[in-house]
Backbone:
């Protein structure tokens, strides 16, 4: 069964074709970063309008590169939320219209479930159950995953998401939007022994996160320097190290709390090399397995949506032709997949 996946929740138009037996066939991505760059962040209305321009050509491109026709698609999965309402509606309306014209089902997928299942696209996918750390621009979640749709929230950020903290710290360092990957690049030149940043909320029990204090600490530290290139690199290093270690402490705690020995890390921030290394070292020490998506599937993409939608369509999950999008949607409200 060929499934078309559509992702339009934020600033990336992602499209993919996934086959239930053959796996991922093709995927195409268009990033709006250059357009939002001059505003220093995402402008929601511009994002929606650009998805309208790019989505249909991207679907055609993906089909062409796969040497498939629309008639061969047997189901459509689209991101129904959480995300920017206008951007979500473009994907939802396109998916539903195309599904109606082809007389096939369309199903709304939870964006964070897409991220959570992205490692399933790799050669050695994790088995259930596992603990998932989801670190993106909008969310930081620790989830106990028993099966598809059986998600128990263990902890979340009480303020900024990890990616948001990266982007805000990057802005202070004079970097462009989205600053996460640029801050990581700058940190490569940083001196490891110069600054020691706090590891927020690690000295009390619990699995929640808070990154806003780290942001303030970054600002104060930077303001106490001359802001030379080396000062900025040293601050970037300390910020990244503190974030990586905070995530590792909480993941270790979540593995202990659940008794599980398997960790999945996904979402845009999981593309960060330092974070991947720190979490891998922690898992090796704990004799736990660790799984990541390949870096291009850490950030938003259509492949993860096609995969998640395929699993739910195979389980006969259905929805009406009405167009739905949920800008806010807690992941533990998802139904367990019935076999
Ligand atoms: O998952 P994602 O593509 O979109 C959301 O669902 O939010 O995550 C985007 C976030 C941004 O905040 C971006 O700065 C961050 O992921 N990010 C990174 C890296 N690559 C992307 N943060 C740190 N290091 C990276 N290499
Ligand atoms: Zn995302």
Residues:
């Amino acid at each position: 069964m060929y499934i078309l996946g559509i992702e339009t929740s934020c600033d990336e138009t992602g499209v993919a074709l996934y086959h239930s037996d053959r796996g991922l066939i093709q995927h195409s991505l268009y990033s709006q970063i250059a357009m939002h760059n001059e505003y220093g962040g995402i402008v929601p209305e511009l994002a929606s309008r650009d998805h309208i321009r790019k989505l249909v050509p991207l679907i055609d491109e993906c089909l062409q590169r796969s040497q498939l026709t629309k008639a061969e698609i047997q189901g459509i999965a689209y991101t129904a939320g959480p995300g920017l309402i206008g951007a979500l509606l473009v994907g939802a309306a396109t998916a539903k219209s195309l599904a109606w014209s082809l007389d096939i089902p369309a199903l709304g997928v939870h964006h964070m479930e897409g991220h959570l299942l992205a490692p399933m696209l790799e050669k050695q996918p994790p088995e259930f159950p596992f603990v998932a750390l989801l670190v993106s621009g909008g969310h930081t979640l620790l989830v106990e995953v028993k099966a598809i749709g059986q998600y128990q929230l263990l902890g979340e950020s009480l303020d900024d998401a990890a990616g948001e903290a990266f982007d805000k710290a990057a802005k202070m360092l004079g970097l462009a939007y989205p600053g996460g990957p640029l801050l990581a690049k700058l940190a490569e030149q940083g001196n490891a022994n110069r600054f020691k940043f706090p590891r927020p909320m690690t000295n009390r029990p619990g699995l929640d996160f808070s990154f806003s204090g780290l942001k303030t600490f970054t600002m104060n530290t930077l303001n106490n320097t001359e802001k030379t290139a080396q000062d900025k690199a040293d601050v970037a290093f300390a910020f990244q190290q503190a974030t990586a270690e905070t995530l590792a402490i909480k993941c270790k705690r979540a593995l202990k709390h659940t008794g599980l020995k398997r960790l999945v890390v996904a979402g845009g921030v999981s593309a960060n090399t330092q974070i991947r290394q720190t979490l891998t070292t922690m898992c090796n020490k704990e004799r736990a397995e660790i799984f990541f998506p390949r870096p291009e599937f850490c950030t938003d993409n259509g492949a993860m949506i096609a995969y998640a939608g395929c699993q739910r369509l195979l389980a006969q999950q259905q929805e009406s032709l009405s167009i739905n999008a949920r800008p806010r949607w807690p992941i533990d409200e998802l139904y367990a997949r019935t076999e």
